[in-house]
Amino acid sequence: MALGLILHSIGIITVMIAIGVGLAKTFHFNADTREVFISLIVNVGMPCIILSAIFQIEIDESVIRKIFLVFLFSIVFNVLGIGIGYLFAVVFHKKVNRAKELAILSGLGNTGFIGIPLCAVLLGPEGALYAAIFDAGVDFTIWTVGALLLQKNPRIGFGMVRTMINPPLIAIVVGMIMVLVGYHPPFFMRDLFDRLAAIAAPLAMFYIGIMTISLIQSSSASFRNSRSTIWLPVTVKLVLMPVFAVLIGKALSLDEILLQTFLIQAAMPTLTLSSILFAKFSADEEIGIVTTIISTIAALFTIPVMVTLLNLYLLR
């Protein structure tokens, strides 16, 4: 993966986020506008990225095996990240009762909003497909391990399964079924998927820019209260986890496209959903907001550095 392409993509993302920051000054960002952005990204853009990728690459037995491998790797890797985050929290912040929140913030990344569009740009349709499968593993981990970790009285039931069903996951299942039964959608549908897929990355970056300004304006006290702990999830998520992804992937002798996908997805900042997840289970919502902002900004610098350094290691 060429450094120029990485810097080019990160530069475009930075400009898009800056546009979002500018847009934040033109309207009032509230719950309704937030839902519009999320609905367009999650319900339209991301499913179309997945369907566009599925219908652009040849799905054979090798690709299907890789899909199952990516899904299993994602779950194991994310659980490992949560475990490392919890261990670090216990060791370095014994007096702070935030170990569970710090563990989730350390282990789970924004592999949907940022990861899938970025993999689509850097690695093409095949990378986008594997990135979507990786994100499905993140969703599975969020609503199983993450939910159980945050619950005061952990319960496993149908509600947990229902929360894991979302448009991107449905797109993966429907697309794979179409491929397996040999159905090829007409050019009109494929062209529609391609065009709608293009909205995901800009909208996601605009949303991050708008959300960042909105949260900074309303959460200055949160920054002050969380500054002593914020380094931990940011360091684990943006530095340690990409290194572990490459080491594990290389130990498994994975091919280049899978290694690159794992590296990019592992390097993603903390998931945007964290504050919502914490609010749902009455956890510390403030640290989720602050970590999302700081890690997203920091990722603009760490992603090109980590991807470049670890790619040099892969070429050895």
TrEMBL record:
It holds the Pfam family Mem_trans. The chain crosses the membrane at residues 6-24, 36-55, 67-90, 102-123, 129-151, 163-184, 196-216, 228-251, 257-278, 290-314. The keyword Membrane applies. It comes from the Bacteria. InterPro entries: Mem_transp_PIN-like, Na+/solute_symporter_sf. It is a multi-pass membrane protein. It is found in: Cell membrane. Belongs to the auxin efflux carrier (TC 2.A.69) family. This is AEC family transporter.
